[in-house]
Specification:
By secondary structure, the protein is α+β, with helices and mostly antiparallel strands. It contains 4 helices and 7 strands; from the N terminus they run ββββαβαααββ. The protein has one domain (11-114). 30% of the residues lie in helices and 40% in strands.
Length: 115
Amino acid sequence: MGAKNLFNDAKFVGQAEGDKRSYYVYQTPNSYLVATAQRRNNYSVTAIQLDSPDVIGRKFKGKEITVNSLKSSAHRPDLFKEYFDRLNALYVMVALGKARKLKKREGRAMVFKIT
């Protein structure tokens, strides 16, 4: 997907709070876009495939997961290969109301509850 069409028809769907930043989630016809401020007037954007929330919801419904457990248990390297793809997919789940970020930790890892 090229940058030229990345933001076509983008609609804001929600936001998720990380430990240090807020993540703003938009849906386009081709993907979810997760934007977060890096510095003043500077944002990073990550594209997440549209089927990621469905895969996470089916595989982990009612469970608590971390970014690393998503990699090892999802069996979908096409969706969850990179660390930030997995993390941002979980933020998409939170923004859609399909998950919660819990206050508890597994070591240093954030824990998410899939609803």
